[in-house]
Amino acid sequence: MVTRTLTAVLHKEEDMYVAECPEVGTVSQGCSIEKALANLKEATELYLEEFPLPELEKPLLTTFEVASSA
Question: For each of the chain's 70 residues, which pLDDT tens digit applies?
Fold first, then answer.
């Protein structure tokens, strides 16, 4: 069994947290950040059982600013 470190991106939609793994494309949700992450982990593990990934390089994660009139 191989252990991988993947990225989770979370945002809040109304009363739920949505968690997404950009490397795999899995998405899940939960009523708390912890639950959303636990659900994402489970969904990703199930996905990877069916569709194993080749060795991945660690993604570069950064932020940027944009100007907006709103």
Answer: 778 889 999 999 999 999 999 989 999 999 999 999 999 999 999 999 999 888 767 777 888 899 998 7
| Listed residue (60, 2, 56) closest to 24, CA to CA | 56
| DSSP E strand stretches across 1-70 | 9-13, 16-21, 26-30
- Those residues whose C-beta lies under 8 Å from the C-beta of residue 28, and which sit 6 or more positions away, are 18, 19, 36, 39, 40, 42, 43
- Give which of 49, 46, 61, 64 is closest to 7, Cα–Cα: 61
Whole-prediction pTM = 0.83
